[in-house]
Automatic annotation (TrEMBL), chain B:
Subcellular location, record wording: Cell membrane
InterPro entries xref list: MetI-like, MetI-like_sf
Gene3D superfamilies, alphabetized: MetI-like
Protein name (record): Carbohydrate ABC transporter permease
Cell membrane keyword on record: yes
Keywords recorded for this protein, A-Z: Cell membrane, Membrane, Transmembrane, Transmembrane helix, Transport
Pfam family of the protein (one): BPD_transp_1
Family: Belongs to the binding-protein-dependent transport system permease family.
Species of provenance: Streptomyces hokutonensis
Membrane topology (UniProt): Multi-pass membrane protein
Transmembrane region(s): 29-50, 109-128, 140-161, 173-191, 216-238, 277-298
């Protein structure tokens, strides 16, 4: 008897599932007045809710649904959505995946809308060109911009005998490290309290590293080596956009990488693998494991909230000439899916997100830097009131020290090919000859159709 | 029923005196130390999860090796259960993500239980046909089916996805459940091996009494296989409960997303950002809790059933 009941129950459950499946299937198919927008950033998902509310008020009957997936799953989910015909109407996009999606005709060109609405692209101070594809179409509006700066533990800096002013004009060269090289050595402490430049310093027992994770697998070096080598005039691509190879074998980069290896060998910066990949810049500095590091502008507001530690922000280093500063900057974009049921509404939302009104409101939390200068000023002001000084970054923008990251094809394949080689180099399994291999690889990957 | 009970051993060996059992010996000490060490090593990660879940995410970074929660708070659990506001969550360094846990819990329950019911029912029926019924080509068909065990699931992922998409079943429970529910080589294999070992006398007696194959299956084979079926059910339920990738591909709509997928928002939001460790650990605990309860309730049964060999 019990068996029969169990079987009946099982069959009933299966039927219920099928029925409810059918009903939920039909309900999600209709409802064109719901606009789906996706982002990978939980903080921006929260920040843009303000815009969504305003947009819904201005457009009765429209509901904006903001969904966030963590970055590891985000692009998998998007691709699955493209294939299944269930991608969001509009979504935050990264330059790394943009060319691929444009090639697959998954993105809606915005040119006609821009022309029709007389939407002025010059309102954005950065990032517009990153979202123009090789076919001449504009596929996205820049959502934000990011830079990097030097974050330091103010207490450690003062104890080492430096003032915060000293950090404002540090210079660097790949031969002896310049003033920042000396500062890094002095900031490093072993477990017995001896500094990196003092006799008896024990590099096997480090309490605090002078500088953060420079020996990392990051293939763009955005928050590691890029702000150093860029001061020498080196650029990642052989062309500003759509490069056909990346300049890994340039002597300037090779020398920079050598300098990083010597820093690590002396115990001034952590070895590759000392901290796992999941340990973030925020964790490193907050825990007192490092005294200074290159960090993204997006972490500025986080550091301000960490208790019991005062973190200062300085600009990235000046180059060997003592006056050049160059910082790699990237802009995420807002793109519309070609398969959206209501492209007009999607454009309405995307263009509203690209307005000063929305950008100013959403960026007040400081979780991203808007690409519209007036909104950026408002955001910087709002954050200043909360004790976060963004002057370092806004100055970089004003002084034109930022240069945009190049758009290139096959970003994911490139990353998969290059990162193991960088790891092998910093791990000591490969020497300088690896850079020629890397450059050759980028050539074959970037020119692949 | 003609069940022959094997005669028991003539006499139980006399229990050794208690004193003897308690006596200290170096071997015993080593064994206990080893056991204690293993228990500690096994349980410590769970403690660390709990300790992190009860910490304030901002303060956590300042004292990562503290053995106790840093800045004790229930905030992470409140975030996971969806009772903290976004502002509260962000004030503690949490993810700004909000989630409606009741819906996800319901989805997970439907997904895991319906899939388990399907697997058990279909696998048991198939196992019966492959073990107790005699038909031409039986072993060949079985071998072909069982070779599916050798195919890594990543290979079937894409065809399954395309099929489900073409059937228009994305964003539905049917799309979630059917590919995994209709065929599980392991469950089939496991149940068939067990049923092969069942004695034929009971079955023959039923045939003499006039029972057909269906009746034999429902009335005799199924009840006799209760223990392995319980084991398979439990394993399949846990599997479905923990499943992440398939729902990730199929379920876009909140109404069908299981808990595992929803809790993914606590993972690293962007490549260089610090994840909400406290939220992530609280989420992991909450997601694992039903499984933990299941094992506490049925643990003995699982262990027993693994050693269970039926009538021999």
């Amino acid at each position: 008897m019990r068996v029969r009941k169990a079987v009946a129950l099982g069959a009933a459950l299966t039927l219920t599932a099928l029925v409810s499946a059918c009903s939920s299937g039909s309900s999600s198919g209709s409802g064109s007045s719901t606009l789906n927008w996706w982002t990978w950033d939980d903080k921006q998902a929260a920040a843009y809710k303000v815009c969504a509310t305003d947009f819904e008020k201005a457009n009765p009957g429209v509901k904006v649904k903001i969904t966030q997936y963590n970055v590891v799953d985000y692009f998998t989910k998007l691709t699955a959505g493209f294939v299944a015909g269930k991608a969001p109407d509009a979504f935050q996009n990264s330059v790394q995946f943009f060319p691929q999606y444009a090639d697959q005709h998954q993105l809606l060109p915005l040119d006609d809308y821009i022309k029709k609405d007389k939407f002025d692209l010059s309102r954005f101070s950065v990032g517009v060109d990153s979202w123009k594809y090789t076919d001449g179409h504009q596929y996205g509006l820049p959502l934000d911009w990011a830079a990097t700066g030097l974050y330091y533990n103010t207490d450690m800096l003062t104890k080492a005998g430096y003032s915060t002013d000293d950090v404002q004009k540090l210079n660097w060269n790949p031969d002896d490290g310049g003033t920042i090289g000396r500062m890094i050595a002095h900031l490093t402490l072993d477990t017995k309290g001896r500094r990196g430049d003092q006799p008896g310093f024990d590099k096997a027992h480090i309490k605090t590293y002078g500088f953060g994770q420079l020996a990392a697998k990051d293939f763009l070096g955005q928050s590691t080596w890029s702000s150093f080598v860029s001061t020498t005039g080196w650029r990642l691509g052989n062309k500003a956009n759509w490069p056909t190879e990346l300049n890994y074998n340039d002597p300037r980069l090779v020398k920079t990488m050598d300098w990083i290896r010597t820093l690590v060998a002396k115990g001034y910066a952590p070895k590759l693998g000392t901290f796992t990949n999941t340990v973030s810049d925020v964790d490193l500095l907050s825990s007192g494991k490092v005294a200074m590091e290159t960090g993204g502008s997006w972490t500025a507001s986080t550091f301000a909230k960490i208790p019991n530690i005062k973190v200062g922000i300085g600009p990235t280093v000046l180059g060997p000439d003592g006056k050049t500063r160059a910082v790699f900057s990237n802009s995420n974009g807002n793109t519309i899916w070609a398969g959206t049921k209501d492209p007009d509404l999607a454009w309405k939302w995307v263009s509203y997100m690209g307005s000063e009104a929305c950008q100013t409101k959403a960026s007040a939390t400081g979780t991203f830097f808007p690409s519209i200068p007036a909104s950026m000023d408002a955001s910087a002001k709002a954050l200043k009131a909360q004790g976060v000084d963004l002057t370092v970054f806004t100055d970089m923008l004003k002084n034109k020290e930022l240069y945009p990251s190049p758009d290139f094809r096959n970003g994911a394949a490139l990353q998969d090919a290059i990162e193991p080689l960088i790891e092998a180099y910093f791990g000591g399994q490969k020497n300088d000859s690896v850079f020629a291999d890397m450059q050759a690889k980028t050539k074959s990957i970037l020119t692949q159709k | 029923m003609a069940v022959t009970v094997a005669p028991g051993p003539a006499a139980l060996p006399r229990r050794p005196p208690r004193k003897h059992a308690r006596r200290f010996s170096p071997g015993r000490a080593v064994a206990w130390t080893y056991l204690g060490g293993i228990v500690l090593v096994t349980l410590f990660p769970f403690y660390w999860i709990l300790r992190t879940a009860l910490s304030n995410n901002y303060q956590l970074a300042t004292n990562p090796s503290s053995p106790l929660p840093v800045g004790f708070t229930w905030g992470a659990f409140e975030r996971v259960l969806g009772i903290a506001t976004t502002a509260e969550a962000q004030a503690q360094g949490g993810s700004g993500a909000t989630l409606d846990i009741a819906i996800y819990l319901r989805n997970s329950l439907i997904y895991a239980s319906v899939q388990t019911a399907l697997i058990v029912l279909l696998s048991a029926a198939a196992a019966y046909a492959f073990s107790r019924l005699h038909w031409r080509g039986r072993d060949l068909v079985f071998n072909i089916l069982i070779s599916a065990l050798m195919v890594p699931s990543v290979f079937t992922l894409l065809p399954n996805f395309v099929l489900v998409k073409d059937l228009g079943l994305t964003d539905t429970f049917a799309g979630l459940i059917l590919p995994g529910g209709l065929f599980q080589a392991f469950a089939l294999f496991f149940l068939r091996q067990f049923m092969l070992g069942l004695s034929t006398e009971v079955e023959e007696a039923a045939i003499i009494d006039g029972a057909g194959p269906l009746r034999i299956f429902l009335r005799i084979i199924l009840p006799m296989s209760a223990a392995p079926i319980a084991t398979v059910s439990l394993l399949m339920f846990v599997n479905a409960w923990n499943d992440y990738f398939w729902p990730l591909l199929i379920a876009n709509d909140q109404s069908v997303q299981p808990l595992t997928l929803a809790l993914g928002v606590f993972k690293q939001s962007s490549p260089q950002a610090a994840p909400d460790w406290a939220g992530l650990m609280a989420a992991a605990l909450i997601a694992a809790l039903p499984m933990l309860l299941l094992f506490i309730a049925f643990g003995k049964r699982i262990v027993n059933s693994i050693g269970f060999s039926g009538l021999k």
